[in-house]
Write a sequence for this structure.
C-alpha cells in the first residue's frame, strides 16, 4: 500500500524567518498527518533548508535542485554532500521552471537522479508537457521521453523509492488545473511506463503525484484517483492554514 504524500514547493518564496515560522507551526500538522498515514514535506530555498530542519526535524525537507557532481568548479551550484551535511534527504529534480528557465534537460535530470540514489536520497522527479504540446496531443510522447530518459540506468530498488510528479506546465500557477481524468490518465500511463522497464513490483511501489493549481477545494478529488498518490503544491502550500486544509480535505 503506497503512503500518501503531500509536498509543498515554495519556489523562490519566504525569508529564513518566514520559513522557520512555518516549520514551527507545522509541527502539530506533521503529527496530525502521520496519524492519518500521510507524509508531508516542504521544499524551501537552499538558504532556509537548515533553519526548517532545525525547527522541525520530523518534516520531510527537500532541496529544489542539486548538482550531480560532489564538488568542483560549478559556480552557484549546490552539491548532494552539502545537502546531506544539513540532514536534507529529499530533492526535487526537473521542475518545469528549471527546465524552462534554466535549460535543464532529461539527460541532466538523469545524472542528478543517479547521483541522488548513490547517496541514498529520495528524488521527486517532475515531468509534464507544455500547453503547445498538450494542444498538439503530444502529452504522452513528451512524458514517455521524460520518464524513459530520466530513469535510464536506475535499478528496480531505486525506482521503488522514487517519487514522480506529473505537473502539466499549463496548469502550474495558472488556476487551470488539469481534470482528474487527465491526471489519472497520465499518472496511470507513467506507472505503465515504469512497469515496462522496471517490472510490476517497482511500478506498484513508485509514488506518483499530481501538481498544478492544487488547492484545498480540489485536492481530495485528485487523491481519490487510483494512480495519484499525492500532490505537489505551489501557491497553496505557502500558508500553514492552507496546508492544514489540504491535509484535512484529503481525509
Ligand atoms: P501551483 O500549485 O502554484 O500551481 O504550483 C505547482 C508547482 O509547480 C509545484 O511544484
Amino acid at each position: 500500500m503506497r503512503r500518501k504524500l503531500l509536498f509543498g514547493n515554495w519556489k523562490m518564496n519566504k525569508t529564513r524567518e518566514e520559513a522557520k515560522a512555518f516549520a514551527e507551526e507545522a509541527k502539530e500538522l506533521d503529527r496530525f498527518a502521520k496519524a492519518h498515514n500521510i507524509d508531508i514535506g516542504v521544499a524551501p530555498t537552499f538558504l532556509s533548508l537548515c533553519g526548517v530542519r532545525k525547527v522541525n526535524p520530523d518534516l520531510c525537507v527537500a532541496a529544489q535542485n542539486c548538482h550531480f557532481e560532489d564538488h568542483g568548479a560549478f559556480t552557484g551550484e549546490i552539491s548532494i554532500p552539502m545537502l546531506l551535511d544539513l540532514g536534507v534527504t529529499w530533492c526535487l529534480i526537473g521542475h518545469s521552471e528549471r527546465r524552462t528557465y534554466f535549460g535543464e534537460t532529461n539527460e541532466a535530470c538523469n545524472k542528478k537522479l543517479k547521483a541522488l540514489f548513490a547517496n541514498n536520497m529520495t528524488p521527486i522527479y517532475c515531468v509534464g508537457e507544455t500547453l503547445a504540446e498538450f494542444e498538439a496531443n503530444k502529452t504522452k510522447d513528451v512524458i514517455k521521453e521524460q520518464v524513459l530518459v530520466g530513469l535510464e540506468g536506475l535499478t528496480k530498488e531505486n525506482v521503488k523509492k522514487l517519487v514522480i510528479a506529473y505537473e502539466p506546465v499549463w496548469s502550474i500557477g495558472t488556476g487551470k488545473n488539469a481534470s482528474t481524468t487527465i491526471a489519472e490518465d497520465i499518472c496511470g500511463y507513467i506507472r505503465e511506463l515504469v512497469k515496462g522497464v522496471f517490472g510490476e513490483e517497482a511500478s506498484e511501489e513508485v509514488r506518483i503525484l499530481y501538481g498544478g493549481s492544487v488547492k484545498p477545494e480540489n485536492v481530495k478529488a485528485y487523491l481519490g484517483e487510483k494512480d495519484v498518490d499525492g500532490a505537489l503544491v505551489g501557491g497553496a502550500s505557502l500558508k500553514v492554514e492552507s496546508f492544514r486544509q489540504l491535509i484535512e480535505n484529503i481525509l
Q: What stands out?
A: The two ends are 16 Å apart (CA to CA).
